[in-house]
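STRUCTURE:
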């Protein structure tokens, strides 16, 4: 088990355990041109990180999905790109603030950013090991992580059920 997903091997499923994460983020709403919206959010987070206090690592971003009926409609689908902070103190009010409870999940890195291939590897590992996942009562879950100075893209499973 890797704590906080330090460095992930390429296309190899690993269990990751995160402590509670305090995140600040920028929402991207609607599936139309999601790639462009992601790039703008990434650029905004990377450039503003230099001026913000309490950033844990400006080169690691998490993608979160809310859970709810709006996610099934292309115009209201939401993706939130986030950075971890140690504290919300002195963070501008226009950032979305989310606290994600501690959890374990299965993660697969894919340097090419292939969401489908990484997702299939996650699902195969969950089936092979007989592991169950659930969002439970969580409002938001991590769907992916970007390490811009490491392995690149990594796909996350929903939290593992104990």
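SEQUENCE:
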């Amino acid at each position: 088990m890797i704590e906080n997903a330090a460095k992930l091997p390429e296309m190899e499923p690993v269990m990751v355990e995160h402590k509670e994460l305090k995140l600040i983020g920028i929402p991207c709403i609607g599936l139309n041109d999601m790639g462009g919206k992601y790039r703008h959010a990434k650029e905004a987070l990377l450039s503003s990180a230099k001026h913000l206090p309490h950033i844990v690592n400006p080169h690691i971003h998490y993608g979160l999905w809310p859970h709810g009926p709006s996610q099934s409609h292309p115009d209201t689908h939401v993706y939130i790109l986030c950075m971890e902070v140690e504290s919300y103190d002195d963070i501008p009010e226009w950032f979305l603030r989310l606290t994600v409870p501690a959890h374990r999940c299965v993660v697969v890195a894919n340097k090419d950013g292939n969401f489908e291939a990484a997702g299939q590897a996650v699902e195969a590992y969950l089936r092979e090991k007989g592991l169950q996942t659930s969002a439970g009562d969580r409002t938001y879950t991590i769907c992916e992580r970007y390490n811009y100075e490491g392995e690149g893209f990594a796909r996350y499973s929903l939290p593992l059920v104990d």
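REMARK: Residues 34-49 form the longest helix (16 residues).
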